[in-house]
Amino acid sequence: MDIVDVNGNTCPLLDRSGLTCPVLCVLDFKDCPKAIEPPTCASNEQLCDDGTCQKSCAAVVNPCLCGLASSDVAAAYKACPAYEKTVAVPSYDPSIKTEQLTFACAKEWGLVAANSTLEDGSGVPSWSAESTDQPMSWSDCPTPQEPELTFTENFCIAFYAILGAELVLYLLWHIYKSVRERHVSSLRQVCSQIPSSLTISKNSAAIASAGSEIQADTEKNSILVAEGKYSSISSISNDLPTIASAAELPEGMLLLRGFDNSYVGMSLYYLSLLSTAGWIVLLAIVVADYYGKVKGGIAYGLLANSNTSMAVFIFVWHLAAVWMVVVLACMSRLRNYFRIECPLSQAYVVQVEERQEEMIMMEGTQNRLTLLVNRIRESLVRKFDLNIVIGSCTAQHISPGDERVFIEYHCTRYVLSSAEGSRFQCHSFDLGNTHRALLAHRNGLTTQEARDRGFYIGKNFIRVIVPSFPVALLREFLSYIYLYQMMCMWVWFYFNYYKMALVQFSVIIASAFVKVAIRLHSEYKVKSLAEHNSQCRVKRDGKWSKLSTADLVPGDVVAVEAGMEIMCDGCVLQGEVVVDESSLTGEAMPVRKLPLKMDYMAFDAQQGTSKSYSVIAGTRVLQCTGSVMTSPSQSLPSLLSGKSFAEKSSSNGYNSAVADLVDEPETQILVTQTRTSTDKGKLIKRILFPVRYSFVFDEQLRVAVLFLLAYAGLGFALSIWLMGHDMTSWLYGVFVLAQTCQPLIPASLTIGQSVAAHRLRRQSIFCIDLPRTIMAGKVQVFCFDKTGTLTKEGLEYFAVQAIQKTSDGDNGSSCICAAQFLAEVPDMARLANVAQVGLAACHAVTVMDDQLIGNPVDVEQLRATDWEIKQGERDSELYLDTLISPFLESIDGSDKLCRQTIHVIKRFEFVHARQSMSVAVLDQATGHVHVFVKGSFERLKQMANAQSVPADYDTMTARWAREGCYVLALAHKDLGPVDDLATVTRMSREQIENGCDLVSLLLFRNKLKEDTASAIMELKGGDTRTVMITGDTALTGVYIARQCGMVSSTARVILGDIDRSSIEEAAEEPRLVWHDTADDSIVDDIDKLLFNEQRDIEEAEQKLGNVVSKRTPSVELAVTAAAFDYLVSTNNIRKYLLDIRIFARMTPQGKVECVQLHMERAVTAMCGDGGNDCGALRAAHVGIALSDSEASIVSPFSSSNRSIHSCVTLLREGRSGLATSIAGYKFLINYGTTMSMLEIVQFYFSVIVPQAVWIMIDSFITVGLCIAVTQAQTARKLAPSRPTARLIGAHTLASIWGQTAINYAFLYGMMGLLFRQSWFRCHEFDSRDIDTSLWWLLGDNYEAEVISLVCMFQFVNAAAVYNFGYRYRRAWITNYILAALYAGFIAIISILVLADPNRFSCMFRINCGNPDTLVDIGYSRPSWDISSYNNPAGHNVMPHKFRWTLWALCITNIVLCLIWEKLVVLGPVGRLAKKWWVGRRGDPKLQLKL
């Protein structure tokens, strides 16, 4: 088709300069024209047939022989010297370029007349082997026939043979395996992950020492296993079904399959690995052959020619891709596929299959596209078992001669039990569930017993296997994303794009190295936390010996020493222990642990009072307080008279037996759990084998990838169509595919996480679960503990309000007729003696290094009494504590005249379920035993004698609670003189605590932390609902909530509680009553009140104002634990959940349930100080523990800065990290759309942008700006909204496709403008004489130049567009790295556009040309080398006016993109559009009251 100018006229053909003349061949050098006559050679040189002077012509190749021998041609022509100048061809026509060039050269050399025309010819014939009569000819040797590959060559036959033999071997193996395994489905086992609990069958003597009741408990429901030593009380293995595949697995179950080795199978397995490497080697050979590195430097030396080489490469590329996809898909099953399935009892390896469902922990995925894709994905998952996790465990024997078999899976031992039909089962040991049952194990184990138990549960050591760096790197590369990247790199390496391929390959390798290094660093941290082993003293065979903690098993008795780290869960048998639990529970204060009591109190280490008697693995012993005997039967005389002592004295002598007792360690613990059954082990197991969960953009990424694949597929098809439907077009299509679906997209979504975690660490907030940082960006509800979190760490003592009992009766009778409150007394010294003794004794405080250790409230209480705990030896083994009053002389107003000594002989620790504790105290002066009960004022009102409760008790306690006091009550009863104190120690808790009279109220002040109110206000301003979950009273919670701003000062707070009178009278079922906390008035219709409140808030939403003023309710709800439980039981809790601000009197388990209920409705965070909050912190989407321990694993986040502002910081960084991840995603998507647009346009014009431009875009712009986008600074304040996490939401799509549409319009517009230029229309690039596979020759033209410049501006501007801080990040200018790169790149591209030819622009082949041509068009001759331009004009220098026009339009493109993002997507236009849409369709988002 003829080219026309802007007026429609046919363009004249252009002159072509800079062309090199072909070699002229002559029979005699004398025939050479003067312009190329041979040189005069030196005396020691000779003139060779190639026209040069050489000392020897033996190795000289004569170009005029055209590769033939001199004997094969009729006349031996010689070559005239090469013409050093270039020639110009007027009216250059590629279709007759050879004729034009030879004529121009002949005319230049004077071989034809000056007035000759092209039709006259050059006068010199073409070369011919038969020509003898022509004195000269052109060296236009006939094109030799390209060698062809017949595909019957030896290496081809070898390839067929290897491939065919391998396929046959795999087929034969499959047939053989199928025959051998035709009945194997019945051999598989479904195994529960819940341990089968083994109870211990003690001998009768041991049982008798603990009481006959233990014998009854131990022998109950026993089934004899393991040679009669253990009894199984919970084994479910025999009830499990037999299934054929993991697809039928019930949730939480394992499918076990046994496999035995086969030498043939092993050989085939290694053959498959070798084949994988072989495909890579084969691709490398094809690529090397392309560059002539296989056979003597000859390109295509192996594969004959270019077309064959491309065909073979594409064929091998596809086969290699399919092979590797299959290998990756079958990687977990591959090794066992080449084994033979067999019975589990005969297995060498056991394959464990487990169904692991993905948990979606975020709202916002419920749109039609996502649901459709999820349904498709779920069907594929079910069809191909993609949710089955597979592991292989080697079957092991405990010793070479021992036939018992076990496997280790996820750090848990599964034992093959022949008693259960050759089934594997994990086990635990039940030592008893009461204190008395546990004390029965105080004599320890025998060596044989310990060995047997060790077989069932394994070593007390969690081995964390951290791979070496090379192995970890190899595992990193075994993923689909790296396979995709690698296959793209092979195409780039093959297609002479190796420079860019090396850059991209380097980036991929570097990122993989960094990821592996970070992961290994984290794994080594877990390894150091898990793998701890030390020596301890253990009682075995009745003797104390030093053993490794790895040898501990349940039932062992261990001596505890100060400074040791406890490596098991256990209970204190003897003595008292003070431990540091901060690394596991977040509890900052040391915790006192007490010995078990010889009673039938239930023992559960996780609940209630049992925590006071239990120790957990991973805690450090700070102090051992000495031997504390808890029963007369435990005293030394009783031990001397015991049966075990009698046996020892008879066998070893009396003195030896006494020596053994004297050497008995003062402090001992009983091991109850080891390994992964411990609390620490469960945490480590959760870290090592986490549950897979999906964030909202993980869900929507699947949809986005499908869209990108469809878009890239369209680009691939267009590439093949535009570039000629040949193999070269396939290579171009792969380029489009690779650059549209950027391999860096998944990485971009995690960059924000790592940046956010790094910034949090700098602010003393530590993260152990990286993905949770982004979840923090979507938190909607933030739950808080009160004491130590919202308020200061400890409570401050305020006062005591005594209760005076008045009596009435004849003759001095003491009948209590009434009770009344006295005025509060701040000074405890002014109290009655009974109240002082009770407050001094009713606690669980101990002393360590002159420091009071215990519950902060108890410590503050003891300090206020000014009594002191006597340290050192106790006066009696029956005394738990001895306390001494501070009074050394008479004090006015006190009925105490001298110093007083009391002894605590019995203590029941605080139990959440009872909300009380009690002590029995011996008054040394009077001999009386007094009982004191302390606890919540509600609980003690129910427990105390009704006559001792003042009539205004509820009113008074409510008053103190409203004033923010933490209110406890104290009750008392006098048991009188007791001759045998053992009778008191044997009394049950109910016997001790019943029948007491109220003595006083104990008041503490809850003081807010100084910055709590400001933090709460910032959270509310950030559209985050704050909730209080406290163990304190509801009214105190209301007071604190008002103080900190959680509840508005003008809000009406309605408290829900259970009507106790109805329960006590048993008149009716429990009834929930709502009453106003201000005046205690009953609210009859709470639903109507809340309906009106919601209507008011919805009306306020339509008005102007900040989010806090619009959504702050005037009615708030508070509930007690009883009301909460009632609402849960009646399924009404979800109805009121998001209206309840304060949850009071909540137990630790109640806090967990409350958080989990909130998680159903919104993304929920929990903040606490550890201890009782641990469960809730772990359960929440985002948990942050205010703990001094950096290594705390109590929750995903821990802050050593114990301020609530840590929560604000966490949300700010989370939102910033989420916004950054989305920005990186949008940047790379925009890169893909812009790049695909660039490539489709250049393919349309049959041009390719210069190689230097490709390197600039892919190496510097994309990589540099992608990293720079992540460096945006976090906003200083929380915005009143959360960033979107939707990859296919309207906001994200408008941002991406809006930019894409603008970029498309400007690129097409600029190309249209170019084609309207008169100076261009007759200088269009003609690629007819260029092989399109030589893509680096297709960039020396105006079309490629304009495409390059426009798209480079667009690539750079995308980073600036998506760097806008909006509300979650600071202004873009504060991202100094991006600002510098942006300004630098814009300046560089502007120079390329506007500057005259210079060294820099010529490097990019932009606004440059051949030196002679540049001189011809008016520029000075360049001083640098310039490769010859591959177009007729010899340059692509644009006119100045067009350069400025192009630059102005590019800047306009930039400005419009910025305006679109700033004003439309993020600005008022977008907000108006959203408001219109919400008004029309409604807002699906949850609007929470603030």
TrEMBL record:
Polar residues compositional bias, start-end = 128-142
What keyword terms does UniProt attach to this protein? ATP-binding, Magnesium, Membrane, Metal-binding, Nucleotide-binding, Translocase, Transmembrane, Transmembrane helix
Mode of membrane association: Multi-pass membrane protein
Q: Where in the cell is it found?
A: Membrane
Query: The P-type ATPase A domain covers which part of the protein?
Result: 534-628
**GO CC term (a single one):** membrane
UniProt-annotated stretches for the region Disordered: 122-143
Residues crossing the lipid bilayer are 157-176, 268-291, 311-331, 501-518, 703-724, 1251-1272, 1293-1315, 1346-1364, 1376-1395, 1444-1465
Query: GO molecular function of the protein, one example?
Result: ATP binding
Question: Pfam families per the record?
Answer: E1-E2_ATPase
Q: Record keywords: Transcription included?
A: no
Q: Record's PANTHER family?
A: CATION-TRANSPORTING ATPASE-RELATED, CATION-TRANSPORTING P-TYPE ATPASE N-TERMINAL DOMAIN-CONTAINING PROTEIN
The text of the family note is: Belongs to the cation transport ATPase (P-type) (TC 3.A.3) family. Type V subfamily.
**What's the name of the protein?**
P-type ATPase A domain-containing protein
